[in-house]
Amino acid sequence: MSYITVVTPIDQFCGKTFDLVNGEIVKGKTSVMSKARAQHVLCESLEVLAKIINGLREGDAIILGYVAPLIKKRVRDFYLLSEREMRVLCQTNDAPLTAFKYGHHCAQRKKANFKRAPFICIDRDVDDNVPEQIKKVQELSNAEFLKVLCSELGPSVSQAFYGADFLPVVSSSGQVFTPNGTPYSKDPSAHLYFKVSNASDIDRFSGALTAHAFGSGFMHNKQINRTDDIEAYRRVTIFDPSVFTIGRLFFEGPPQTTNGVLLKRSPCRVVKWNGQDVRTHCVGEPTGEMLKALNLQNLNFKRGKVGGYLESNTLPRNTVIETKMGPMTAEMFERSGIERLRCQALRSGSVSWAAYLGRHDDGSCFLFDSGTTIKHKIEPAPVVTERTNVDVMLEGLFKQIVK
């Protein structure tokens, strides 16, 4: 049996919000969820998934998976908490992944807690100022977009998706209109849900699929809106690879609207093709000309513990990175001895902390950007024979932390 998780935030609204300011719709920022009610719901088909999404209330979200330890205990209803809230609940510095407190089951919203359901989501991003090839894909209908996956990303991707039914869900931005009927988004993006043949293969499959998209030429540099004057870009493709992350929240409930913003939400329905699931095993790692195309983009395809991923060339040691311990250079992280540290993506203008600094077994360091699924290697340290300014800065930083 397969389950997904329906999530309802407790302390604040966490979906998209839209307000009307001087006759124009303004989208607010999504709040970080710290406490929520959660429910495991049996879901074994796209048709059932459609019924669940159509029944979501304002602010509700879904996770394409379930908390395995609680399913073993046949727990259906529980509380989903951030690590901080779990520490507060358990009155400990070392928060457990699951707990039973005050008559309720609780679980942290961490990847380690979740097992995948046999579903994936292709998130069709729509951006401005993109190359003509990308713009044409953004303007396609969902069915035509599926044809691109089956014809433009190589024969193995075609074999995987050919004949697959899918469930399209209009994004929050595509559901809101001004009082006179003007849509907020001219070309709304969409979530396309598919059932897959093997849930345990999604990690490997997602990395390979992203590599095939990049290697097939569907890549562009998206400009990041920063609060400073730095001109920054991120490499993105025709879908958002970060949504393959296990435990990811999908805010498919109706958005919150104020000041006369109209909400037009139609029920989602499964689009039939040949009744096939996506055959993930068909998509292997890129080879030949596709691998060469990746190399020309300064990318390499590597095999990891759970699947493949893209790796860029060396990250300059003096790059300043926003981390949970404050700004630090890549070199400062390397010298710190810390094994893993949550941070913001390179040149990111968001505050999602969708990246982390880590170490390989040989001690070399890297930054992994979950938004692009690209690992950025930190360039090797130069040979030095005397104490550097970095040593002094690092000592000062950690003295402040200890205090």
Shape: globular
Number of strands: 27
End-to-end Cα distance, whole Å, is: 51 Å
Helix coverage percent: 10-25%
- Sheet with most strands: 7 strands, mixed
Poorly predicted runs: none
What's the alpha carbon Rg, rounded to whole Å? 22 Å
Global structural class: alpha+beta
Strand content: 25-35%
Q: Report mean pLDDT, rounded to a whole number.
A: 86
How is the largest sheet built, in terms of strand order? 8-9-7-4-1-5-17
Number of helices: 10
Keywords:
globular, 10 helices, about 400 residues, alpha+beta
Q: Strands, helices and their partners?
A:
Elements: E1 3-9, E2 17-21, E3 24-27, E4 35-42, H1 46-54, E5 61-63, E6 65-67, H2 68-72, E7 77-81, H3 83-90, E8 98-101, E9 104-108, E10 114-116, E11 119-124, H4 132-138, H5 142-151, H6 155-161, E12 167-170, E13 176-177, E14 190-195, H7 202-215, E15 220-224, E16 232-236, E17 249-250, E18 256-257, E19 262-263, H8 288-296, E20 299-303, E21 308-315, E22 320-323, E23 326-329, H9 330-336, E24 340-343, E25 355-359, E26 365-369, E27 374-378, H10 389-402
Parallel strand pairs: 2-18, 7-9, 21-27
Antiparallel strand pairs: 1-4, 1-5, 2-3, 4-7, 5-17, 6-10, 8-9, 11-14, 12-14, 13-19, 15-16, 20-21, 22-23, 24-25, 25-26, 26-27
Structure description:
This protein has 403 residues and is an alpha+beta fold. It has ten helices and 27 strands. The strands form eight sheets. Strands 8-9-7-4-1-5-17 form a seven-stranded mixed sheet. The protein has a six-stranded mixed sheet with strand order 20-21-27-26-25-24. A hairpin with a 2-residue loop joins strand 8 and strand 9. The termini are far apart.
